[in-house]
């Protein structure tokens, strides 16, 4: 097991790793759409989704892979009415075949945001 960190994403909000590599898979902890440059998040759920996936990809790059290697994602929304907007942003950021995915509505997230995403991705040669 190996811890992965990136200085190019906001710090974790609790006692957990940004990501862990185990058996050829990168397990990325829940990330949100906070811009690492400004410390702010966009207002809309769609824009938060795009920024969240950019943050996830920075961690994947630190591990030696990228968003095309994502095999599973879990999307947490504070309002399922944002589902279509989130899907549009998700579709424009990721390519087919899309990862397996679960999307659930939660009452709130650790930060006052609308979207959090966790992913599992393969490392090179992990097919």
Automatic annotation (TrEMBL):
<dbReference type="GO" id="GO:0005829">
    <property type="term" value="C:cytosol"/>
</dbReference>
<dbReference type="GO" id="GO:0019239">
    <property type="term" value="F:deaminase activity"/>
</dbReference>
<feature type="region of interest" description="Disordered">
    <location>
        <begin position="24"/>
        <end position="50"/>
    </location>
</feature>
<dbReference type="InterPro" id="IPR006056">
    <property type="entry name" value="RidA"/>
</dbReference>
<dbReference type="InterPro" id="IPR035959">
    <property type="entry name" value="RutC-like_sf"/>
</dbReference>
<protein>
    <submittedName>
        <fullName>2-iminobutanoate/2-iminopropanoate deaminase</fullName>
    </submittedName>
</protein>
<dbReference type="InterPro" id="IPR006175">
    <property type="entry name" value="YjgF/YER057c/UK114"/>
</dbReference>
<comment type="similarity">
    <text>Belongs to the RutC family.</text>
</comment>
<dbReference type="Pfam" id="PF01042">
    <property type="entry name" value="Ribonuc_L-PSP"/>
</dbReference>
């Amino acid at each position: 097991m190996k811890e992965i960190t990136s200085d190019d994403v906001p710090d974790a909000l609790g006692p957990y790793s940004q990501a862990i590599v185990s058996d050829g898979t990168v397990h990325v902890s829940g990330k949100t759409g906070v811009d690492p440059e400004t410390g702010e998040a966009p207002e809309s759920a769609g824009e938060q989704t795009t920024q969240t996936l950019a943050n996830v990809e920075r961690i994947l790059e630190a591990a030696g892979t990228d968003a095309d290697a994502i095999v599973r994602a879990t999307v947490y929304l504070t309002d399922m009415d944002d589902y279509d907007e989130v899907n549009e942003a998700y579709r424009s950021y990721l390519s087919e075949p899309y990862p397996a995915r679960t999307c659930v509505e939660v009452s709130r997230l650790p930060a006052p945001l609308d979207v959090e995403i966790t992913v599992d991705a393969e490392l090179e040669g992990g097919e």
